[in-house]
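Re-run with default settings, no changes from the original entry. Doing this only to confirm the output is reproducible before filing.
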Amino acid sequence: KLTERTKSALINIYNKGYKVALASGRCIDGLRIVREQIPIPIIQITMNGAYNVADDGSLISESTIETETSKKVKNLMNKYDLQLLYFSENKWFTEYKNELYNYEISVVKYDGTVCPLIDIVDKIKIHKLLAYGTPTKTKEFIEESKRIFPELNIVSSSSFYVEINKSNADKGKGIISVAKHYCVDISDTFVFGDYDNDIAGFKVAGNKIAMANASENLLKVADVVPLPKDEDGVAYVVEK
């Protein structure tokens, strides 16, 4: 959700010559509700850096998970009774119309495609898998999946969600590819975040800003900790 103050701050900084990017675990469809609220060209670092799009809509870089690996990860999810969302290019998919599907629609305001992964994994690119379950189950899943799949980047985005990408895809690598595309020195980047899947972005950014209500792990690597996100923490720093 963008407040009027945050919208104004981003528009003003764009008019001063800065580029503005949304960096998210969501796909492009999932970012539409945010993107369309800001009347300026927006760069999109999506699916944790697995699919990155310039402000003119052209593809900058992408990273996909192999078909067989996707199947194996899904089987491990079944062991821990985790639900699955998966993402390809600009779209999101679900295996069933259930509470998770309904919740995702309530967040992104855009319908996903309902199709079991096994029925379509050979036909589309898989840029990200997302597991959902109880905090205990997701923690156990993370521990085992990191041992089994060293070729993957596996990180939590909340106590209920696990984000899974190829190891060469994270927000940091996405930021690096976008900075190179626009010939911007990485030291001149400002990255805002609030949870563990933002740590990779903080590792590369010139300026690291964590919201005051961010996860403990992210707060440890932040340069600046302003207001909480629900008190316009982003706008406060951009205005400064």
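The longest strand covers residues 83-88. The radius of gyration is 17 Å.
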